[in-house]
Amino acid sequence: MGKGRLIVISGPSGAGKGTICEELFKDENVVFSVSMTTRAPREGEVDGREYFFVTEKEFIENIENGGFLEHAQTFGNYYGTPKAAVLEQMELGRDVILDIDTKGARQVREIYPESVLIFVLPPSMEELKRRITGRGSEKEEDIKIRLGEAVHEMSLAVNYDYCIINDDLDEAVGAVKSIIAAEHHRYDEEMDAMIQRYKEEK
Amino acid sequence: MGKGRLIVISGPSGAGKGTICEELFKDENVVFSVSMTTRAPREGEVDGREYFFVTEKEFIENIENGGFLEHAQTFGNYYGTPKAAVLEQMELGRDVILDIDTKGARQVREIYPESVLIFVLPPSMEELKRRITGRGSEKEEDIKIRLGEAVHEMSLAVNYDYCIINDDLDEAVGAVKSIIAAEHHRYDEEMDAMIQRYKEEK
Prior knowledge:
The structure is a homodimer. Chain A is of the alpha/beta class. Chain A has eight helices and nine strands. Chains A and B meet through strand 8, helix 6, strand 9, helix 7 and helix 8 of A and strand 8, helix 6, strand 9, helix 7 and helix 8 of B.
């Protein structure tokens, strides 16, 4: 089986990352990472399931100890991906998916260079507008801002290993699965050990 | 659809590359490249099908014109992969497979850096010996030489993008197909053009 891979999925709001990830998690060897946060738990949220809920002091200590693959502050709260939990899953042979933005992806790549970066694009501007607008009765101005943010995010796709245009959900999911399967065939320590054995047995 | 990819497959004699390639060619969008050679055609061989048969003068002119993705001299004859024919197939959206050795692969990577290098390994030393021996009534000494060559080739797998252990044919073919599918999702000029359009339409 071998070690699991760390897969980072980014894409603008409206690209359909969430739906793709849900499909991927149907495979029991593909898991998501539980983030750590300083925000208060909401009704029904369980510590260790939705998030690991910690104090700001604990969070900052974890930053100082190099305990995050990536972290960020949003609306006064900290959010981060704990490194140990992710690496542990990978040691068990599971692929870990991180659904994070371009800033987070850059941090992950720095800390764990073997991570696989996938960017999901909406199929067209019309579809992106439809998906952003369709989420609720948002104001014209808000939609314009979100569209601008989406296009800015997309301009950073060039830094990713792979790009998927989410036109058809099945195809997009199939593409991510192919990428994960391919990444399991990268030359790694296991291959190296195997070739060493060949040399010795010769 | 997009442009086809250039896939280089290497592996020691006995790894089972040939059988894998045969399976891949069942997909009409996956083609092999017809090599050019200075050796004389054998009974039943057709120019442009098995090989492009040329004179030594023509072959050397083609080398001088940078017309090869790779070429080598074996037992006094030249063999090479003509660049133009391969690029033409790729423009038509077809993936081109080159079944060549590690020396050829290195040349291809230099001339066409976007090429995808896959190394096929036999599942075990016993199986490699069995496959090498099984080919005919070869002498002990010849088998030893071929085994040594095979292990030397394998030690160069580290330079490849992907490695596949050919334990089960279906799995090995599936792995190559996943790799090709994944490689079609690399960020390329088409992605770039799409993102440019998003920026303009914003």
